[in-house]
From TrEMBL:
It comes from the Bacteria. One of its GO terms (cellular component) is cytosol. The keyword S-adenosyl-L-methionine does not apply. Residues 7-74 form the Pyridoxamine 5'-phosphate oxidase N-terminal domain. This is Pyridoxamine 5'-phosphate oxidase N-terminal domain-containing protein. It comes from Micromonospora matsumotoense. Pfam families: PNPOx_N (PF01243). Keywords: Oxidoreductase. GO terms for molecular function: coenzyme F420 binding; oxidoreductase activity, acting on the CH-CH group of donors.
Amino acid sequence: MTDLDRLTAEKYVLLTTFRKDGRAVSTPVWAVRDDDTLAIWTVADSGKVKRIRRDGTVTVAPCDVRGRPLGEAVPGHAVLCGPQESNRVRDLLKRKYRLLGRLTLLGSRLRRGEAGTIGIRVTVGG
């Protein structure tokens, strides 16, 4: 089983991005497999988006809902998705997380609008 297979089987993954000074910032997020990448969905103006825009170096690890790691972190490279790709990520999350995913995505769209969230693609392993 590959790192990508293991991570996409988890309900939550711990996405770690890095500040300019090198300090790590970790956040538990939902993630789903999209071809050969790990796809993540988040608020468009979040700190992690700003850090990824500056430097796509990340690590990802399986975790629980509170962000406690449940396994080893693997290195990865993250890129932000455009509007069409972000919609694809939302659709994949709805399939994986079913009713909870649909309700969460709907609530977010009502609060923030469609452009208020963004997809992130992580290539695992470098």
